[in-house]
Amino acid sequence: MKESAKSRATFVFIAGIVRPLLNLMMAKTWEGTERLPASGFIAAPNHCTEIDPLVVGHMLYNQKRAPHFLAKAALFKVPGLGPLLRATKQVPVERSTAGANRSLQVAQEIVAEGGAIIIYPEGTLTRDPDLWPMKGHTGAARLALEGGIPVVPIAHWGAHEVFPRYGKRFHLFPRKRSRVVVGDPVDLSAFSGRPLDKATLTEATDVIMDAITALLAGLRGEQPPAERWDPAKQQQAKHGRFVERGQQPGGAGTEAQ
After folding, report:
1. Which pTM value belongs to this model?
2. SS3 category, 29
């Protein structure tokens, strides 16, 4: 993607700080980076800890692909952080329908220019007790099907040991390893020509989530649950932190060991 001079300079500044810190915090293994398309694409990773964007962004930036995330609109109002997000053309996500449409439009522009847009289909940190990918939202599938954009599934594992889900401190010792694997673009050809109604988008999203889950199962060497975790069925909110049974309100949630 042809980044503006300001965007390139800001990315260099951020990378100069973040990359050395990540290298100090954890070892890393990246697999399948040769599968990243040369043109614009949607990266669809799993989401299990707050530092996931740094892990995925580090991998993409080192492949000379500037990472552009769909980020909560509230983050753009944070002093110091907001200007950095705007300078690097991150995409604010609003809950309103009009705001969501604007977000997808900006994402389409980034991809059309050859950029990489990172969308977490789960929408928030997984609620699954064992950190498996949960039921996904349909935004990534809609963007892909509307624009004929490839969706690249990405799975990573290990960063949650450094900073557990909803954790309050880093666990640097003993040294942990973050592992990232990039999969082949998801085959969504079966949905070509179909109306982009709820049924189509839900099916396409399930295909994307299946691809992410399969990659993660390979990384973990474990079998995923037979049924994907659905917050609605568990009476959990779709966004924000959640409190598990047996915890007091305001608790930090279950920390993965």
Report:
1. 0.91
2. strand
- Whether the Cβ atoms of residue 248 and residue 254 lie closer than 8 Å to each other: no
**Spatial CB neighbours of 134, under 8 Å, sequence gap ≥ 6:** 122, 126, 127, 128, 228, 229, 230, 231
Per residue in 47-79, pLDDT tens?
999 999 999 999 999 999 999 998 888 889 999
Residue 33 makes CB contacts below 8 A (sequence gap 6+) with 59, 63, 182
**Average pLDDT per consecutive 10 residues, the chain (257 residues; last block may be shorter):** 82 96 98 97 97 97 94 90 93 75 84 93 95 96 94 98 96 97 98 96 98 98 97 84 49 32
Residues contacting residue 40 through CB under 8 Å, at least 6 positions apart: 1, 110, 111, 112, 113, 114, 115, 116, 117, 149
Tokens of 113: 């220019």
Query: In this structure, are strands 176-182 and 151-157 parallel, antiparallel, or unpaired?
Result: antiparallel
DSSP 163-226: S-TT-SS---SSPEEEEEEEPPPP--GGGTTS---HHHHHHHHHHHHHHHHHHHHHHHTSPPPS
Q: In the prediction, which pLDDT does 241 show?
A: 75
